[in-house]
Amino acid sequence: MRRFGDADLAEESVQEAFGRAAARWPVDGTPASPLGWIVATAGNAAGDRLRRERALRERLPALAAEPARPDPDPFEEQDTVPDDRLELIFTCCHPALPAEASVALTLRLVAGLTTAEIARAFIVPEPSMAQRLVRAKAKIRMAGIPFRRPPGHLLAERLDHAAAVIYLVFNEGYSASSGADVVRRDLCEESIRLARLLASQLPEEPEARGLLALMLLHHARAAARTTAEGEIVLLEHQDRGRWDAGMIRAGSAELRRAERAGAPGAYQLQAAIAEQHARARAFAETDWARVAALYARLAALAPSPVVDLNHAAAVSMADGPARGLELVDALAASGALDRYHLLHAARADMLRRLDRPADALAAYTRALELAPGAADRAFLERRRAEMGRATP
Amino acid sequence: MLAIYSDETDLAAMTDEDRGAMYAEYATFAEDMGRRGMMIDGAELRPTAAATTVRVRDGRALVTDGPFAETKEQLGGYFVLDCESIDDAIEAAGRIPSARNGSIEVRPLVER
What we know:
The structure holds two protein chains of two kinds.
Chain A lengths: L6 H22 L5 H18 L1 H12 L20 H8 L6 H12 L4 H7 L4 H18 L8 H23 L7 H20 L4 H14 L25 H15 L6 H14 L8 H14 L3 H15 L1 H14 L6 H13 L3 H14 L3 H17 L2
Helix pairs in contact in A: 1-2, 4-5, 5-7, 5-8, 6-7, 8-9, 8-10, 9-10, 10-11, 10-12, 11-12, 12-13, 13-14, 14-15, 15-16, 16-17, 17-18
Chain B lengths: L1 E5 L1 H6 L2 H20 L3 E6 L7 E6 L2 E6 L8 E8 L4 H10 L7 E4 L6
Antiparallel strand pairs in B: 1-5, 1-6, 2-5, 3-4
């Protein structure tokens, strides 16, 4: 790493800073920017440490007790204290590390989660997670992964990589469904903090802010996404009154700031799509033409068959199922998503709306063969049964 | 070290013109590394048809014809470069012509 050339040292220094914070805050009160303070202190701690390594080693057992993590407001800028977290993110999210190691390292070293917390969040035994972290730190050390803000010609690519890691953390939390999965849902807030850090440290990179906007606009709907029993509620059936209006406003504001740079990117476009959904007071009031146009731009910028499928679905809502079906059939003919249950489910839905129950039945059957999750399967079963009754 | 792996039958099947263009590109790369003071060593290896593998077991040398392992891509050459960080090595690896059809394995040397 840039200053100390050793991820272990940096980690222990952060731990030490937590130790100092735990010892000091009850007396001094919590500083305004606890995380910034921790990292600034960690820098001092590492400097100290190089001078008095032995003394510290004697103190380490006491510091190993993990202090309570401060809980900064994820929606407040935390950039008042200059620190090394940006460099640390780029070290942890270096493309020479496997993605799962980057996720674990970022949560451990940047977000300050304990190994036990990360293990619980990813449903991995703690010793396995500890091993993953050890291996990743060894790779950083042995491969010479630098601790620095990437130079200009590498920044865009590396930012893209770091953003993907942060979004992976978010999605891990987002897909957690039940109340018992609180630790996993915390991952959403951790990733929002990380994206805010990235956006505040790289104000000239609108995609960092686009990522932040995207996650805020998704997370704003969290409360309405599951029933009390932990079942997933589709967008169409969500109680929009339970959406977090403040977080939606915050997400929109971040998106406007990102868009001012005039450099659209995949995260900004996805955020703009999420914003369209978040703004509609009812599912039927969604501006589908706008959503379809945004998907078309996204497809041009970051081509992917899944984006094409979403585009087709939006078109079917904006211009009717016949037009949507043309697009889905073209996509199906390419074979790219033949084993993706949502392609067949989307096709089935359009056929149903076109009053072609026999064709819809066949498509629902295919979707059911491929659907992985119980929630999706239950929904598809219900629709298929309806088609069965409608088929002469 | 940047170890260059590619399918050596591809090289054999190249037209003289294509092979010439590839070697010219290698030369440009090597010159540039030299100009930047990064070049320590580098060489192209003869194909695995020229390889001999030696193992000593129970004090006896066993010499066999051919490479250590049959693989789809073979070690065909290498560069040893002086790099500030893995980022320099990754960038350099990306400029090696064989990266486009083969693979470049980046491995730091142990420094003592």
